[in-house]
Amino acid sequence: MEMRLEKATENDAQSILDSQVKAFFPLMNKYKDYDTNPANENIETVITRINRPNGNFYKILAEDNFVGAICVFWKENAEFWISPMFILPAYQGKGLAQKSITLIEEMFPQAISWELATLLEEKRICYLYEKMGFNKTGVSKKLNDNTTLIFYKKVC
């Protein structure tokens, strides 16, 4: 499947937010994480990410269909952070998240490291990141009685 990343603009903000809600809503309900789950964000947060001077929000396009998005930002020393990244439910399990990570890494060859966080209880997502070369940092944050955020890092 032909896939590419395209830099998002403010005109994409509503479709990104709507898709983000579709992708994250099941996790929000499952873990009762109403404070930090991206399904509970607003349009202003998406616009802020799109316009961030030290980052970019990219639409994930497969066969020219919008299937998700990936947001990256960086610190001074070429340390990159991915958050959020999502694939719409209808397109999950097709290797698109893996391809998106590979493409984003190719776009930023100056990166010395990549970091992200995900839910410890979501073994499939943890497996994806570990398969892509990310390692647990040992840092975690209990979000509530139902879930824990776990941090990953990949050194280039």
List key phrases describing it:
seven-stranded mixed β-sheet; alpha+beta; 156 residues
Rg over CA atoms, rounded to whole Å, is: 15 Å
Strand order of the largest sheet: 1-2-3-4-5-7-6
Count of separate DSSP helical elements: 4
Tell me the β content.
35-45%
The low-confidence runs, each spanning 5 or more residues with pLDDT under 50, are none
Tell me the span between the first and last alpha carbons. 27 Å
Helix content: 25-40%
Shape annotation: globular
Quick one: how many beta strands?
7
Q: Specify the structural class.
A: alpha+beta
Main β sheet profile: 7 strands, mixed
> How confident is the prediction overall: mean pLDDT?
96
- List the helices and strands in order: EHHEEEHEHEE
